[in-house]
Amino acid sequence: MTESKPIDYSHLSVPERILLAQELWDSVYDRAQEMPLTDAQRQEIRRRWAAFEAGEITAAPWSEVKRRLLSQ
After folding, report:
1. Which residues span the domain enclosing 46?
2. Which of 13, 28, 69, 71 has the largest count of CB atoms under 10 Å?
């Protein structure tokens, strides 16, 4: 990978930046399996899943989170 000058996104509003981030993620989602998880990432996923199953934390569907973020 070549180094490039960072892109300035300061002219975008927060909702526009969120949409940009979502579009970027969508563009690589199908190939995400090509990036293996580290042991630390696996452990963190297991820890969070156990906390969710134990009722220690709650979750919301992405559509709801996205709606709340974009309405701010």
Report:
1. 14-28+38-70
2. 69
